[in-house]
Amino acid sequence: MGAVLALLIFTGCAAQKKATTKPTGDGGSAEADKILYGRAMNDLQHNRFDLARLSMQTLINTYPDSEYLAKAKLAIADSYYKEGGATGLTQAVAEYTDFITFFPFLDEAAYAQMQIGMAHYRRMEKADRDRSEALEAEAAFQTFLQKYPHTELTPRAEQRLREVQEVLADGDFRIASFYYIRRMDKASAPRLLDLVNRYPLYSAADRANWMLASIYERNEHNDVATTYYTRLVKEYPLSSLAAEAKAKLVKLGAPVPQPDPTALARMQKEQDTPRDRPGFLSLRRPAELLKSGPDVSTAARVGQPTLTPQTEDATDTLTPGGGLSVVAAGGASTGNGSGTGAYVQTVSPGTSDPPAASSGSAASTGATAGSSNPPGVASTQDQGAQSGQANASTNTGTNANGNADPPSQTSQSQGNQGESSSKKKKKKQAQLQPQQTLPK
């Protein structure tokens, strides 16, 4: 009996050991890819990016049918994004794009598109620097909001898009202001037109509308000027320039509109939204002083950002022998417009521009860039321009409006007369006006 009992116990133990050590079907490979994925994620969490990518790539190449294939592909992109730097972020964009191409219907595709925008956002320069990364970020966030409008990442993508468009609009506004204070209207107006139509949430959009209206007013196109004064009153009712715009409409004989309720509610909510003050932000976080990216503290927190992509259509054109044309949307034209609600100003070689506004209207128009009270400052500049027109002789240079240069530009026009004959020959062949100083 004892021998039989010992034999039964030995047989049972052997069978149990055999059952636990025998692999079942594909269990070995499934366990291996899971181990590889877990090891890679552990390396990624500890910033061992090269080891993490090596494990992920081994998983993808060895187990093409693994359930961790998509996760491994996305983790490779995340490793490049987390590593950062110019090379890392560029490679991250390529990997996220590949993930969307191979797995467009997974829920993680929305995350990948968001990360593409964030990679460009992190490389975005300041408003007065290269804007290529800002444009790429804008396009990526717009694509996200159009393809994935109802996800948990949507509010974050909208805010990032507002910040990117604040930077783009600020770059355009700085250049337009440079030309505006020098009364180079054909260079300033197209940029302001694109800004006010494309970026209505820009923090200085009310000033841009004021500047654009004053440009048309001092060029004696009051019908177009009232369009932008009206827009300022309706869409920016809490602006410090709204009262001045109403006074302008009364002076020009145009009706004063009521504020738009939606715009009024948006501005009130914007004022009630807490935001960091840039000065105290640097005191709390000294590392912000070394930050090379743009300051987006003035970006809107409320409102729908622009979702239409950038176009290459310019509002100003320069063709050989044709001159410069500036097109302003809105308002009926009494000049050379065709009744389509747009004013077209064409300047051909050998002809002069429309005259500037008279002394009465010029003294009350215009806003200087960067001032808190644009009407008052612009009035002083316009008076200086009028005195320059009165003192300029027929041989002095002309500014962008075709009028005589103000006193500050007289020396420049006199210096242009002493240029070499080769430069004059080139200018004559191109049929262009004397070049003006461009912003850096």
Q: Which features would summarize this protein structure in a list?
A:
440 residues; mainly alpha; Serine Threonine Protein Phosphatase 5, Tetratricopeptide repeat; 3 strands; elongated
**Number of helical elements:** 18
Strand tally, please? Answer: 3
Known CATH architecture of the domain at 30-169: Alpha Horseshoe
Measured distance between first and last alpha carbons: 104 Å
What is the CATH topology descriptor of the domain at 30-169?
A: Serine Threonine Protein Phosphatase 5, Tetratricopeptide repeat
Structural class: mainly alpha
Shape: elongated
* N-to-C order of helices and strands: HHHHHHHHHHHHHHEEEHHHH
| Major beta sheet summary | 3 strands, antiparallel
Percentage of β-strand residues: under 5%
Average pLDDT, all residues: 74
* Unreliable stretches covering 5 or more consecutive residues: 17-28, 279-284, 312-373, 375-440
Strand order of the largest sheet: 1-2-3
Tell me the name of the CATH homologous superfamily of the domain at 30-169.
Tetratricopeptide repeat domain
Helix content: 55-70%
